[in-house]
Amino acid sequence: MSGNIIDGIAVAAAVKSRIKRAVENLRAEGHLPPCLATVLVGKDPASAIYVKNKQKAAADVGISTQDHKLAANISQKELLELIMLLNNDPQVHGILVQLPLPENIDESFVINTISPSKDVDGLTQTNAGMLLNGKATLIPCTPLGIIELLDFYKIELESIDAVVVNRSNLVGKPLAILLLQRNATIMICHSKSKNLVNKLRSAELIITAVGNRDRFTLRDNMVKEGAVIVDVGITRFMGKPAGDVEDFQSLKEKASWITPVPGGVGPMTIAMLLNNTLLAASLSTANVQRKN
After folding, report:
1. Whole-angstrom Cα distance, residue 231 to residue 152?
2. Among 54, 118, 173, 252, which one carries the catalytic annotation?
3. Over the range 213-231, which residues count as b (16 or more CB within 10 Å of their CB) and which as e?
4. Bridge partners for 235 per DSSP
5. Which of 27, 181, 210, 230 is buried most, with the most CB atoms less than 10 Å from its CB?
6. Annotated catalytic, 52?
Protein backbone atom coordinates (compact mmCIF):
# COMPACT_ATOMS: atom_id res chain seq x y z
CA MET A 1 0.00 0.00 0.00
CA SER A 2 1.19 3.51 -0.79
CA GLY A 3 -0.53 6.17 1.27
CA ASN A 4 -2.26 9.20 -0.16
CA ILE A 5 -0.93 12.61 0.88
CA ILE A 6 -3.32 14.90 2.76
CA ASP A 7 -2.32 18.23 1.24
CA GLY A 8 -2.94 20.96 3.81
CA ILE A 9 -1.65 23.69 1.52
CA ALA A 10 -4.25 22.89 -1.16
CA VAL A 11 -7.11 22.56 1.32
CA ALA A 12 -6.12 25.78 3.10
CA ALA A 13 -6.08 27.57 -0.26
CA ALA A 14 -9.63 26.37 -0.94
CA VAL A 15 -10.78 27.54 2.50
CA LYS A 16 -9.11 30.94 2.06
CA SER A 17 -10.70 31.35 -1.37
CA ARG A 18 -14.11 30.75 0.21
CA ILE A 19 -13.33 33.25 2.98
CA LYS A 20 -12.18 35.88 0.50
CA ARG A 21 -15.47 35.67 -1.40
CA ALA A 22 -17.44 35.97 1.85
CA VAL A 23 -15.43 39.03 2.92
CA GLU A 24 -16.05 40.63 -0.47
CA ASN A 25 -19.78 40.00 -0.02
CA LEU A 26 -19.75 41.68 3.41
CA ARG A 27 -18.03 44.72 1.93
CA ALA A 28 -20.46 44.81 -1.00
CA GLU A 29 -23.36 44.87 1.46
CA GLY A 30 -21.84 47.89 3.22
CA HIS A 31 -20.67 46.08 6.36
CA LEU A 32 -17.38 46.57 8.17
CA PRO A 33 -14.69 44.21 6.91
CA PRO A 34 -13.65 41.57 9.48
CA CYS A 35 -10.85 42.83 11.71
CA LEU A 36 -8.37 40.70 13.66
CA ALA A 37 -6.38 42.29 16.50
CA THR A 38 -3.09 40.50 17.22
CA VAL A 39 -1.30 40.96 20.55
CA LEU A 40 2.38 40.03 20.77
CA VAL A 41 4.18 40.40 24.12
CA GLY A 42 7.97 40.45 23.91
CA LYS A 43 10.31 39.75 21.02
CA ASP A 44 10.39 35.97 20.77
CA PRO A 45 11.48 35.39 17.14
CA ALA A 46 9.23 32.38 16.55
CA SER A 47 6.17 34.15 17.97
CA ALA A 48 6.91 37.23 15.86
CA ILE A 49 7.05 35.07 12.71
CA TYR A 50 3.77 33.34 13.60
CA VAL A 51 2.02 36.68 14.07
CA LYS A 52 3.46 38.08 10.85
CA ASN A 53 2.27 35.03 8.91
CA LYS A 54 -1.22 35.34 10.38
CA GLN A 55 -1.39 39.02 9.48
CA LYS A 56 -0.25 38.33 5.91
CA ALA A 57 -2.81 35.54 5.51
CA ALA A 58 -5.52 37.88 6.80
CA ALA A 59 -4.54 40.58 4.31
CA ASP A 60 -4.63 38.04 1.47
CA VAL A 61 -8.35 37.38 2.08
CA GLY A 62 -9.34 40.98 2.83
CA ILE A 63 -9.39 40.76 6.62
CA SER A 64 -7.91 43.87 8.24
CA THR A 65 -5.59 43.63 11.23
CA GLN A 66 -4.60 45.67 14.23
CA ASP A 67 -1.02 45.00 15.29
CA HIS A 68 -0.27 45.39 19.01
CA LYS A 69 3.36 44.77 19.98
CA LEU A 70 4.05 45.06 23.69
CA ALA A 71 7.25 45.05 25.72
CA ALA A 72 8.20 41.82 27.48
CA ASN A 73 8.13 43.60 30.86
CA ILE A 74 4.57 44.88 30.47
CA SER A 75 2.45 44.34 33.56
CA GLN A 76 -0.52 42.00 33.54
CA LYS A 77 -2.75 44.95 34.44
CA GLU A 78 -1.64 46.87 31.33
CA LEU A 79 -2.17 43.83 29.10
CA LEU A 80 -5.66 43.28 30.51
CA GLU A 81 -6.49 46.95 29.93
CA LEU A 82 -5.59 46.55 26.24
CA ILE A 83 -7.74 43.44 25.92
CA MET A 84 -10.70 45.22 27.51
CA LEU A 85 -10.28 48.08 25.02
CA LEU A 86 -10.31 45.58 22.15
CA ASN A 87 -13.33 43.80 23.65
CA ASN A 88 -15.23 47.09 23.57
CA ASP A 89 -14.08 48.19 20.12
CA PRO A 90 -16.93 47.51 17.63
CA GLN A 91 -14.46 47.59 14.74
CA VAL A 92 -12.51 44.62 16.15
CA HIS A 93 -14.13 41.22 15.56
CA GLY A 94 -11.38 38.85 16.65
CA ILE A 95 -8.64 39.01 19.30
CA LEU A 96 -5.57 36.78 19.15
CA VAL A 97 -3.07 36.84 22.02
CA GLN A 98 0.05 35.05 20.79
CA LEU A 99 1.22 32.38 23.22
CA PRO A 100 3.34 31.77 25.20
CA LEU A 101 3.24 34.84 27.43
CA PRO A 102 6.04 35.90 29.83
CA GLU A 103 6.21 34.00 33.11
CA ASN A 104 5.04 36.99 35.16
CA ILE A 105 1.66 36.94 33.38
CA ASP A 106 -1.17 34.50 34.19
CA GLU A 107 -1.86 33.08 30.74
CA SER A 108 -5.20 31.52 31.64
CA PHE A 109 -6.49 34.71 33.25
CA VAL A 110 -5.50 36.77 30.21
CA ILE A 111 -7.14 34.36 27.76
CA ASN A 112 -10.35 34.32 29.76
CA THR A 113 -10.50 38.11 29.73
CA ILE A 114 -11.09 37.98 25.96
CA SER A 115 -14.76 38.33 25.05
CA PRO A 116 -16.00 34.85 24.03
CA SER A 117 -17.55 36.40 20.90
CA LYS A 118 -14.07 37.62 19.85
CA ASP A 119 -12.13 34.56 21.02
CA VAL A 120 -11.01 33.39 17.57
CA ASP A 121 -8.63 30.83 19.12
CA GLY A 122 -11.60 29.22 20.90
CA LEU A 123 -9.65 28.96 24.16
CA THR A 124 -11.81 30.79 26.71
CA GLN A 125 -13.56 28.68 29.33
CA THR A 126 -16.89 29.83 27.92
CA ASN A 127 -16.13 28.57 24.42
CA ALA A 128 -14.56 25.38 25.78
CA GLY A 129 -17.74 24.70 27.74
CA MET A 130 -19.90 25.38 24.71
CA LEU A 131 -17.80 22.96 22.67
CA LEU A 132 -18.26 20.30 25.34
CA ASN A 133 -22.02 20.80 25.10
CA GLY A 134 -22.09 20.77 21.31
CA LYS A 135 -23.00 24.47 21.10
CA ALA A 136 -19.67 26.03 20.12
CA THR A 137 -19.34 28.71 17.48
CA LEU A 138 -15.63 29.54 17.79
CA ILE A 139 -13.63 26.31 17.96
CA PRO A 140 -9.84 25.94 18.47
CA CYS A 141 -8.18 26.35 15.10
CA THR A 142 -5.93 23.29 14.88
CA PRO A 143 -8.61 20.70 15.80
CA LEU A 144 -11.07 22.43 13.48
CA GLY A 145 -8.48 22.37 10.70
CA ILE A 146 -7.89 18.64 11.19
CA ILE A 147 -11.61 17.90 10.84
CA GLU A 148 -11.72 20.09 7.72
CA LEU A 149 -8.83 18.11 6.21
CA LEU A 150 -10.44 14.75 6.92
CA ASP A 151 -13.77 15.94 5.51
CA PHE A 152 -12.14 17.36 2.39
CA TYR A 153 -10.63 13.96 1.58
CA LYS A 154 -13.88 12.19 2.53
CA ILE A 155 -12.24 10.13 5.26
CA GLU A 156 -15.15 8.56 7.14
CA LEU A 157 -15.05 9.29 10.88
CA GLU A 158 -18.18 7.49 12.06
CA SER A 159 -17.26 4.39 14.09
CA ILE A 160 -13.52 4.84 13.42
CA ASP A 161 -11.13 3.88 16.24
CA ALA A 162 -8.94 6.93 16.86
CA VAL A 163 -5.93 7.53 19.11
CA VAL A 164 -4.92 11.12 19.87
CA VAL A 165 -1.44 11.54 21.34
CA ASN A 166 -1.96 14.87 23.08
CA ARG A 167 -4.11 16.05 25.99
CA SER A 168 -3.73 19.84 25.75
CA ASN A 169 -6.54 22.38 25.74
CA LEU A 170 -5.20 23.59 22.41
CA VAL A 171 -5.35 20.30 20.48
CA GLY A 172 -6.08 17.01 22.22
CA LYS A 173 -9.14 17.77 24.35
CA PRO A 174 -11.12 19.82 21.79
CA LEU A 175 -10.17 17.40 19.02
CA ALA A 176 -11.49 14.46 21.05
CA ILE A 177 -14.82 16.27 21.47
CA LEU A 178 -15.06 17.05 17.74
CA LEU A 179 -14.35 13.42 16.87
CA LEU A 180 -16.93 12.21 19.40
CA GLN A 181 -19.47 14.51 17.78
CA ARG A 182 -18.77 12.63 14.55
CA ASN A 183 -19.36 9.27 16.29
CA ALA A 184 -15.72 8.21 16.34
CA THR A 185 -14.35 6.14 19.24
CA ILE A 186 -11.55 8.08 20.94
CA MET A 187 -8.59 7.21 23.12
CA ILE A 188 -6.38 10.06 24.36
CA CYS A 189 -2.79 9.07 25.14
CA HIS A 190 -0.02 11.09 26.81
CA SER A 191 3.32 10.81 28.60
CA LYS A 192 1.86 8.66 31.39
CA SER A 193 0.00 6.21 29.13
CA LYS A 194 0.95 2.54 29.47
CA ASN A 195 1.53 0.23 26.49
CA LEU A 196 1.39 3.14 24.05
CA VAL A 197 2.68 1.07 21.13
CA ASN A 198 -0.13 -1.48 21.50
CA LYS A 199 -2.72 1.27 21.76
CA LEU A 200 -1.43 2.92 18.59
CA ARG A 201 -1.32 -0.39 16.71
CA SER A 202 -5.06 -0.81 17.28
CA ALA A 203 -5.95 2.60 15.81
CA GLU A 204 -7.50 3.26 12.42
CA LEU A 205 -6.81 6.97 12.87
CA ILE A 206 -3.71 8.30 14.65
CA ILE A 207 -3.40 12.00 15.43
CA THR A 208 -0.12 12.87 17.12
CA ALA A 209 0.82 16.32 18.44
CA VAL A 210 3.87 15.97 20.68
CA GLY A 211 6.42 18.13 18.87
CA ASN A 212 9.42 16.76 20.75
CA ARG A 213 11.35 14.01 18.99
CA ASP A 214 13.41 13.29 22.11
CA ARG A 215 10.22 12.27 23.92
CA PHE A 216 8.20 10.66 21.14
CA THR A 217 8.29 9.69 17.49
CA LEU A 218 5.72 7.68 15.57
CA ARG A 219 7.50 4.67 14.08
CA ASP A 220 6.59 1.96 11.60
CA ASN A 221 6.05 -0.68 14.29
CA MET A 222 3.41 1.51 15.99
CA VAL A 223 1.06 1.71 13.01
CA LYS A 224 -1.16 -0.91 11.47
CA GLU A 225 -1.57 -1.30 7.73
CA GLY A 226 -4.05 1.16 6.24
CA ALA A 227 -4.25 3.55 9.19
CA VAL A 228 -4.80 7.28 8.67
CA ILE A 229 -1.99 9.40 10.17
CA VAL A 230 -2.36 13.09 11.02
CA ASP A 231 0.94 14.59 12.22
CA VAL A 232 0.44 17.82 14.16
CA GLY A 233 3.87 17.87 15.80
CA ILE A 234 6.30 20.54 14.67
CA THR A 235 9.94 20.90 15.65
CA ARG A 236 13.34 21.21 13.99
CA PHE A 237 15.35 18.07 13.28
CA MET A 238 18.74 18.14 11.55
CA GLY A 239 18.12 21.77 10.65
CA LYS A 240 14.74 21.19 8.99
CA PRO A 241 11.08 21.35 10.08
CA ALA A 242 9.90 17.93 11.22
CA GLY A 243 6.85 16.34 12.78
CA ASP A 244 6.32 13.39 15.09
CA VAL A 245 6.57 10.83 12.27
CA GLU A 246 10.07 9.36 12.42
CA ASP A 247 10.34 8.07 8.83
CA PHE A 248 7.77 9.68 6.56
CA GLN A 249 8.50 7.54 3.49
CA SER A 250 8.22 4.31 5.46
CA LEU A 251 4.89 5.26 7.04
CA LYS A 252 3.60 6.67 3.77
CA GLU A 253 3.89 3.16 2.34
CA LYS A 254 1.95 1.72 5.27
CA ALA A 255 -0.78 4.33 5.82
CA SER A 256 -3.88 4.87 3.71
CA TRP A 257 -3.63 8.65 4.23
CA ILE A 258 -0.91 10.77 5.85
CA THR A 259 -0.16 14.45 6.41
CA PRO A 260 3.33 15.79 5.63
CA VAL A 261 5.27 18.21 7.83
CA PRO A 262 5.47 20.93 6.71
CA GLY A 263 2.44 21.36 4.45
CA GLY A 264 -0.12 19.35 6.38
CA VAL A 265 -1.95 20.63 9.43
CA GLY A 266 0.02 23.88 9.80
CA PRO A 267 -1.61 25.80 6.91
CA MET A 268 -5.03 24.70 8.14
CA THR A 269 -4.51 26.28 11.57
CA ILE A 270 -4.10 29.71 10.01
CA ALA A 271 -6.97 29.09 7.57
CA MET A 272 -9.30 28.25 10.46
CA LEU A 273 -8.17 31.36 12.35
CA LEU A 274 -9.31 33.41 9.35
CA ASN A 275 -12.54 31.41 9.18
CA ASN A 276 -13.23 32.09 12.87
CA THR A 277 -12.56 35.81 12.36
CA LEU A 278 -15.01 35.87 9.47
CA LEU A 279 -17.57 33.99 11.55
CA ALA A 280 -17.14 36.39 14.49
CA ALA A 281 -17.60 39.36 12.15
CA SER A 282 -20.69 37.84 10.54
CA LEU A 283 -22.28 37.18 13.94
CA SER A 284 -21.46 40.73 15.05
CA THR A 285 -23.10 42.09 11.89
CA ALA A 286 -26.18 39.95 12.48
CA ASN A 287 -26.45 41.18 16.09
CA VAL A 288 -26.23 44.82 14.98
CA GLN A 289 -28.98 44.24 12.39
CA ARG A 290 -31.26 42.64 14.99
CA LYS A 291 -30.80 45.59 17.33
CA ASN A 292 -31.68 48.00 14.54
Report:
1. 17
2. 54
3. beebbbeeebbeeebbbbb
4. 242
5. 230
6. no
Query: What is the maximum alpha-carbon separation in the chain?
Result: 62
Q: Does 173 qualify as catalytic in the annotation?
A: no
33 Ramachandran zone, left/alpha/beta (phi>0; psi -120 to 50): beta
Residues 145 and 259 in one domain: yes
Give the domain CATH number at 257.
Answer: 3.40.50.720
pTM: 0.95
pLDDT digits (tens, 9 = 90+) for 20-55: 999 999 999 999 899 999 999 999 998 999 999 999
In a domain, 107, yes or no: yes
Annotated active-site residue 60? The verdict is no
Same domain, residue pair 171 and 107: no
Which residue range is the domain that position 74 belongs to? 30-115
Q: Is residue 122 part of a domain?
A: no
Number of domains into which the chain is organized = 2
Catalytic residue among 121, 173, 231, 252: 121
Residue 125 lies in a domain: no
Amino acid present at 55: Q
Instruction: Indicate which residue of 55, 98, 231, 252 is catalytic.
Output: 98
Which residues of the chain are under the pLDDT cut of 70?
Answer: 1-2, 286-292
